[in-house]
Amino acid sequence: MKIDHHGETPPYEQVRVHYAQSIANRELPVGAKLPTVRALAKDLGLAVNTVARAYRELEEAGLVETRGRAGTVVSANGDSNRERVRSAAHAYASMAAELGLSREEALEIVRAAFRA
């Protein structure tokens, strides 16, 4: 993982997105252990609080679990979270079609929500 220290995306968000994508792509399977906050911060040249924030957001999203001294691991909830998002996407697509929105209009609404 490389951090763009001069980019527009904050470093904590770069870390969060990297791990979220790795979990979503199943590059990191359930139970895989993430580096300690201190070790990752040192490796990436970041403040400990920056990495801690990324891990905290991953945990709030249900993608990882912090198990005290055992560290932070990929949660089994990640798979159920993915299913919840798929279900919500299906419901959204159905609603958009019922309301007569084009596929592009519906996708633009989603893009705008991600930008917000």
Structure report:
With 116 residues, the protein is mainly alpha-helical. It folds into 2 domains: 11-75, Arc Repressor Mutant, subunit A (Orthogonal Bundle), CATH 1.10.10; 80-115, no CATH class. The chain contains 5 helices and 2 strands. It has helices at 11-24, 37-44, 48-60, 77-98, 103-115, and strands spanning 64-66, 72-74. The protein is globular. The two termini are 26 Å apart. The mean pLDDT is 91.
Name the poorly predicted regions: none
Output the helix-strand order. Answer: HHHEEHH
CATH architecture of the largest domain: Orthogonal Bundle
Main CATH class of the largest domain: Mainly Alpha
Question: What's the end-to-end separation, in Å?
Answer: 26 Å
InterPro entries: Tscrpt_reg_HTH_GntR, WH-like_DNA-bd_sf, WH_DNA-bd_sf
Pfam families: GntR
Keywords: DNA-binding, Transcription, Transcription regulation
Protein name: GntR family transcriptional regulator
Task: Give a nutshell description of this structure.
This protein is mainly alpha-helical and 116 residues long. The chain has helices at 11-24, 37-44, 48-60, 77-98, 103-115; strands at residues 64-66, 72-74. It folds into 2 domains: 11-75, Arc Repressor Mutant, subunit A (Orthogonal Bundle), CATH 1.10.10; 80-115, no CATH class.
Helix-strand blueprint:
Layout: H1 11-24, H2 37-44, H3 48-60, E1 64-66, E2 72-74, H4 77-98, H5 103-115
Antiparallel strand pairs: 1-2
Keywords:
116 residues, mainly alpha, Arc Repressor Mutant, subunit A, 2 domains, 5% strand, transcription regulation, transcription, DNA binding, WH-like_DNA-bd_sf, Tscrpt_reg_HTH_GntR
